[in-house]
Write a structure and sequence with these properties.
Elements (H helix, E strand, L loop, with lengths): L5 E6 L5 H11 L4 E3 L3 E2 L14 E2 L2 H9 L3 E7 L2 E6 H9 L3 E5 L2 H10 L4 E6 L3 H10 L5 H15 L7 E4 L3 H16 L6 H17 L3
Parallel strand pairs: 1-7, 1-8, 2-7, 3-4, 8-9
Antiparallel strand pairs: 3-6, 5-6
Helix pairs in contact: 1-7
This protein binds guanosine-5'-monophosphate (5GP).
Guanosine-5'-monophosphate binds next to strand 5, strand 6 and helix 4.
């Protein structure tokens, strides 16, 4: 069976990655699986353990590192975040496209391990828009918002390493762009080796049958 595609989506805190991914899942429920990360940060209001994140202690996180259970992991604004390897590998083997919503240090680890992964970076239309979105969602105290805005400068240093940069000005347009890019990535010749081999043997059969 053809392996699924691994898609990494990064972008500054508050840029709307989560909303875009939820829209993709709602519009195309069969096409994507979204990895549930482990984190040591506290749950926000409304977040559900095992759905939004696996909320674990630093000791549990370290245990997962020691047992090599992460595809990637990284610190972010005082907490640790990581992608559990097993479900991602299982979904890819089942031919499902898997989305990881992770920050750039982790994204670059994935790029090294899986050069076939598609790396997308979502940028805000401006820093003012980002700030008002972060404040508007009211999920973190002002000090944390400040730290997250500061983290954006560091994250911006890695943007050239991504395959595509998209601006989330209109979320519907941005979601369509993401979907198109994922579809085009799947059409690369390199991703279609099995199809090419099958077509070649069909050509051979056809030539034999028709004495060409
Ligand atoms: P938040 O605390 O807002 O949910 O996430 C903070 C940052 O951590 C976001 O940029 C998010 O994409 C990133 N993040 C979430 N899960 C993971 C993960 O498993 N690995 C890495 N490297 N970053 C993650």
């Amino acid at each position: 069976m053809k392996q699924g595609q691994l898609i990494v989506i990064s972008g500054f805190s508050g840029v709307g990655k989560g909303t875009l991914i939820n829209m993709l899942k709602t519009c195309f429920p069969d096409d994507y699986r979204v990895s549930v990360s482990a984190t040591t940060r506290d749950p926000r209001d409304g977040e559900i353990d095992g759905v939004s994140y696996h909320f674990i202690t630093q000791e549990e996180f370290q245990g997962m590192i020691d047992r090599d259970e992460f595809l990637e992991y990284a610190p972010y604004v005082g907490n640790s975040y990581g992608t559990p390897r097993k479900p991602v590998e299982e979904w890819l083997n089942e031919g499902k496209n898997v989305i990881l919503e992770i920050e750039p240090q982790g994204a670059l680890q994935v790029q090294k391990k899986r050069p076939d992964a598609l790396l997308l970076f979502i940028a805000p239309p401006s820093m003012e828009v980002l700030k008002s979105r972060l404040i508007g969602r009211n999920s973190e105290p002002p000090k944390v918002v400040e730290k997250r805005l500061k983290a954006a400068a560091k994250e911006a240093c890695e943007m050239e390493k991504y395959d595509y940069i998209l601006v989330n000005d209109n979320r519907f347009d941005c979601m369509c762009q993401i979907r198109n890019l994922i579809q085009m990535h799947g059409q690369r010749a390199e991703a279609q080796k099995d199809f090419i081999a099958a077509l070649r043997s069909d050509i051979e059969r056809f030539q034999e049958e028709n004495n060409l």
